[in-house]
Amino acid sequence: MTRNLPGLTLDELTKELDSRQRAVELLKWIGSWTAFPKELPETVPGVSHRVWAPFRARHGLPRVEVKERKLSEDGTTKYALQVDGAVIETVRIPANGRSTICVSSQAGCTRKCVFCATKELGFTRQLKAEEMLAQYLLARMEAPADAPARNVVFMGMGEPMDNLDEVLRAVELLTQSPFPQLRAQSVTVSTSGVLPGMERFLRESKASLALSLNATTDEVRAQVMPQNKTWPIRALLDVLRAAAERDPDRDTFVEYVLFGGLNDTDADADRLVALLRGLPARVNLIPYNPFPGTGLQTPTEARVVAFHRRVVDQGQLCLVRSPRGREIAAACGQLVLASDAQGFVPQPT
Ligand code: SAH
For residues 1 and 94, what is the distance between their CA atoms, to the nearest angstrom? Predict the structure, then answer.
């Protein structure tokens, strides 16, 4: 299989173009795109025709078209992108003078998290690294001048650890010089807790990792994330602990979706702190973004505030992530196109 641009690494391009300098020019050219090209042009600045013509005969571009853009009042933009055989979603979230791009790693998902709308789509196919890069490039091109793209999170559709080869390549591509040259800490891969994939990711990548914990007992976690029966809480946190000892510079996040009456009690807050003791992880609390048919509740605002306070008061770093782009169904767990049309019930924020 030949790989398409922008899915080739600097080293691979150097080999193919027979020069580091040409490879660097090519990456700079990709960085200058203001639209995603339909095909590779006949000439590229800084790469001689003699070398470019055979390269162009061997490699193309993935097909990626913006099908729809939805802009939320808070500046969050959701893109529906047509790729080969699937529609995927990418979200750009501006905050504090920079934008975070949220990319999808799969078209659909095979995991069965009860609270996540993506599972309703089923699974269409794995995305290639170049398609993940294309999502970043497209969203970056349209970022407002006062909030340029600085961070990438693999928190869109899909479970990154179930497509790990391509996700690892995408992380390498995002962090390579001269373009896009993101810092490893600025790229965060989020997982529902696929333990073998987490172990490999933590060995092979310097990027940040977010674990979606979402409960403090195996019983409750298995209720909302059936795979917890295979990889329970303790085992997942042990993997994070071992990695933090090996590599203290990595940023680790624990995502905790708060469900009203299920995992949002004071006892949960205390158990959460106890579970994370000794682990240098930051907690992100995400109030559940509801969608019909799950039987799960959004927590009250007072509960969110009290839970947060109780965790912080015990010395655990913790932030509440306010839902972004809820009214355009761009918030966590809402990335499913069908529901947009079918009377999605947004909650006031
Ligand atoms: N599969 C990966 C990445 C996609 S989900 C993972 O599970 O981490 C990204 C984040 O959104 C996860 O932390 C997940 O727990 C959270 N999430 C999913 N559905 C949600 C919902 N309906 N409301 C709030 N957060 C949700």
Answer: 37
Best of 90, 164, 190 to mutate for ligand 1, by most ligand atoms within 8 A of CB? 190
Element (H, E) at 91: strand 86-95
Compute the distance from residue 298 Cα to the ligand 1 centre, in Å: 14
Burial class of residue 165, CB neighbours in 10 A (0-12, 13-18, 19+): exposed
- If you take atom 13 of ligand 1, which residue's CA is the nearest one? 212
Contact 281, 309 (CB under 8 A): no
Q: Whose CA is nearest to atom 15 of ligand 1?
A: 212
Catalytic residue list: 89, 332
Helix, strand, coil in percent for the chain, rounding step 5: 40, 20, 40
Closest ligand 1 atom number to CA of residue 287? 24
Per-residue pLDDT in tens (0 to 9) along the chain, 349 residues: 689 999 999 999 999 999 999 999 999 999 999 999 999 999 999 999 999 999 999 999 999 999 999 999 999 999 999 999 999 999 999 999 999 999 999 999 999 999 999 999 999 999 999 999 999 999 999 999 999 999 999 999 999 999 999 999 999 999 999 999 999 999 999 999 999 999 999 999 999 999 999 999 999 999 999 999 999 999 999 999 999 999 999 999 999 999 999 999 999 999 999 999 999 999 999 999 998 899 999 999 999 999 999 999 999 999 999 878 878 777 777 776 544 433 232 333 3
* 149 burial via Cβ count (<10 Å: 0-12, 13-18, 19+): buried
